[in-house]
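User: Run a structure prediction on this.
Assistant: Running it now.
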Amino acid sequence: MPFSLKGKAALVTGSGRGIGRAIALQLAQAGASVMLNDIDREPLLETGSLIDQAGGIAKALPGDLTQPDFPQKLVDFTVNGFGSIDIIVNNAGYTWDNVIQKMTDEQFQAMLDIHLVAPFRILRAAAGFIREAAKREIAEGRRVMRKVVNITSVSGVDGIAGQAGYGAGKAGINGLTKVLSKEWGRYNVNVNSVGFGLIETRLVQPLDAGGTIEMKGKQIKIGVQPAMREAAKSMCPLGRLGTVEEAAGAVLFFCSPLSDYVSGEILIVSGGARS
């Protein structure tokens, strides 16, 4: 590996499964200490165990990011546990789709809450530590780069039918990325977004598989129509869906010194498929 993240403290939300778990594992492999978060406790502890078994360093704090006071608690737990917060990956999320005439206020707001409001609260909570640390480092004549990676989607860039809430939340996080890259550049923070196409996770399993997730006591169907999966493969120049490891690799780039002069960008990871 051409770089090391040893001595860096990373926070990865939604790291109990899928892309979030792959991101956490790759950051730990690169040497970072990783704070794990997910609403589901058991998968989260499994991620921590995998990092421990590989010789990495991880701590975990399960909890619901959409609770107004939890993002501050999570950031404080990270700083107190590792003495710093150098990398923030806002990855947590899920889909709750419907065409607009059938989408309820609850559905729409739920998508904004997890994909936009929660990341905003995490970044606001981290602002105090980041600003003070950067001012101290600059006064000492040191440039210490920190990283924010916000996970977006092709739905937030190009739009996907049936995803008014999800697409709006993902478009919003792109706007937050652009703004924060300008506000935090003076503190030596790179702020970027990575937008995924269809990656092989439980959220894009065939809809007829009957998968659900439980959110706030509701059972929400997850997955996509089999025909959509096949269409996505046919439209992709690479002819397949992406793996979670490939998705995580793009995030790792933005967390690494390789991206120290890249900020305010949106990197689409879709195998070349754009609508």
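The mean pLDDT is 94.
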